[in-house]
Amino acid sequence: MSQPQDFIYLSPPHMSGREQHYIQEAFDLNWITSAGANITGFEQELGGYLGMHVAAISSGTAALHLALLALGIGPGDEVFCSTFTFVATANPILYVGATPVFIDSEPTTWNLCPSALEDALKDRVQKGKLPKALILVHLYGMPAQMKEIQEITARYGVPIIEDAAEALGSRYQGQLAGTFGIISAFSFNGNKIITTSGGGALVSADAKLVEHAKWLATQAKEHTPYYHHTTLGYNYRLSNISAGIGRGQLEVLEERVQQKRTVFQNYKRLLEDVQEIEWLPEPEGFFSNRWLTCITLKKGSSLTPEQLRLKLLEGLIEARPLWQPMHRQPLYHGAAYYGGGVADDLFARGLCLPSGSSLSLADQERVVREIKGAF
Ligand SMILES: *Cc1c(COP(=O)(O)O)cnc(C)c1O
Questions:
Q1: Residue 1 in this model has a pLDDT that exceeds 90
Q2: With a 6 A CB cut-off, is 63 part of the ligand 1 pocket?
Q3: Are residues 116 and 41 in the same domain?
């Protein structure tokens, strides 16, 4: 739906101006579809940045689906998953016919709680079954507590699939998010820190896994001159046009990270005197791309997040609730859950503020005025 011109969106696409150049090249060579120099270029450039092998995929969700398939996960298997996330993190578990087990957050990073993870693993061992993988999300760009989580999963021999869809450019102890897991997924959907209009990537240090994922993503065609198939495949590759947009966006990734971080710092400074607002801190050793600036309202606040959201909307400003935890979704009714209600509390008290990397200071001051007015 179209909005008035001065409507402030949550996180709109922000072009660098270089995208057209790559798209024009694709048109000039008539490489419009699922092969071409932009795809290989995008894979190499993103791979160079991450120091990993990359497969360009049609969406982040499809990349997660392929990750589970590449690890051979299927019916009868259990997969652990962060409960506090967007539904696309969990749905691929159902696509492959496996069973999700949801794990709560901790309050420091809002991501997977190591002690809830440990409790869950102990309990599953007693029930006689270990999960085949853990899908770990770095929500809103904040890295999870990797050291503690890796120590636990290594002890139980459970591989980590990172959902780094929101965390491109974020770091934990200097290491980029999306380079910890056996396989990781990124998203380049329109509202992410960089976009390909729609798209994703599957990433791994293991070149064979990435090759296998590319093969699954191109209908699993056997290496014969005719069309011969022994495995169920998918049509999951990114188009050469979309990859061209991605190349133009990758050129400004570090700039976008700095812009998102500035948006966060501005909000924090300008709203300093609003006592009812709390901020997600960045602990020592953590570096968030601050994809979205999220706040929580203190217990006993004079406004609910929903009241604040509606006030902002009256001022032509888009704010959004935090993700509703997966164990609260009717879709996942009955799924096992381990935790103490941290994600529930965040959902009840949280709100995402407009955080576009192109948000002007003047527009941000308008948001701040509306927030102060609401309180
Ligand atoms: C956006 C997102 C996805 C899905 O990515 P698409 O490219 O939209 O399929 C997965 N997980 C998280 C946490 C996301 O934010």
A1: no
A2: no
A3: yes
